[in-house]
Amino acid sequence: MSLKFSQEDAASRPLFVVSSEEFADWSASQPAAVQTWLTETGFNGGFGQVATLPGADGVVSAAVAGVGGAQDRARHRFALAQAQARLPKGDYHIEGGMAGLDPAEQALGWLLAQYRFERYKPARDSGARLKAPKGVNAARTETIAAGEALTRDLINTPAADMGPGDLEDAARALAKSHGAKMSVIRGEDLLAQNFPMIHAVGRAAAREPRLIDITWGGSGPALTLVGKGVCFDTGGLNLKPGASMGLMKKDMGGAAAVLGLAHMIMALALPLRLRVLIPAVENAVSGGAFRPGDVLASRKGLSVEINNTDAEGRLVLADALALADETPPDLMISMATLTGAARVAVGPDLAPFYASEPGLADAIRAGGRAAADPVWEMPFHAPYEPMIEPAIADLDNAPKGGFAGSITAALFLKRFVSDSAQYAHFDIYGWQPKPAPARPLGGVGQGARAVLEALPQLLDL
Questions:
Q1: Does 374 reside within a domain?
Q2: Which E.C. number(s) belong to this protein (predicted)?
Q3: CATH number, domain at 25?
């Protein structure tokens, strides 16, 4: 699978992009035969409509894609992506305008619509390819699409083939392709090197836990990305019901997101020093599993009472964040499929995030708007701090009561970074529950494009 634009010198057919509001005027400007053909086929510029226009020899000479009315375009980003699967095989170029749509967003959407997960069976692609629209940076857009495809592939792969070792292999392949360095701490060495919570969460599994550490770049500001790599989450001894386990192959979605973002950063050769930390574990059930009521040590020295073994992601992230904070970067970002509370709050399409300072939040919000990567700021709400402070330890991993679950998880993580750190945390879902333009059912990246867009402002690149 290659998410690429067609070659600039390739022969191509015109593709007209028409909204419902523009259709009457646009149609009136076309030859009478085209007007009749569109009437006969029922095309009126509606959202997702596609019509091919035959030439005198009966061969498709052009096509027209409908992007609907204003309400359709407000409800659906990547409106043009619908056309990619519905057009005949061939190369196309945009003829005329884009119905007021952002060419860069629509070009990215077209590439993302070409994505297919093909590890276990081949998937059909229409073969419709687009030339990069005028003014669109083709190489950058292709790089972003490739990063998103990596994220989707990692999430979509079942845990049998995407355990901690497989995630390590994927990270190593990425590092090698960009000339990055990588080290890994595994199994009992996690205890010896003071990562007790990563070890505790992963020790019950047959496949040993590990901490993946990638570094790249020799100069510039420092950026550290930390991604939750829980390759499957049974819930541990607080066992999830079967229905809740069905999507737990995606519980490494934070790791997948930061690896996709890391590809974008390295492939674009951004002038910064990058570090990627991924605690990769399975939260399994065996005689060695950590228990409700246990008190765990952490790398930072804070003790953590375990009130629910199904709140394990924050534990492995905490040790990784503590390591990152020991050599403070200019910007630290964590990404994790952390809480169901975030989904209740904002649903699957928005990526909630927390920021340590207003300027960081503003830049991420602006980046999300510019990159068609919707995000929503949530608060590090200090009055909720007592909720994560139990009687017998420094911290509680799962406060009782069920209130503010995403916020208390974020506050928990923030205890493992310095007060002075510029830090953002994303509580993502990492899954598209039903097909949408450029986003098929399955794994999906969230937050990465927003961060990429914000980096020049945040790190003065």
A1: yes
A2: 3.4.11.23
A3: 3.40.220.10
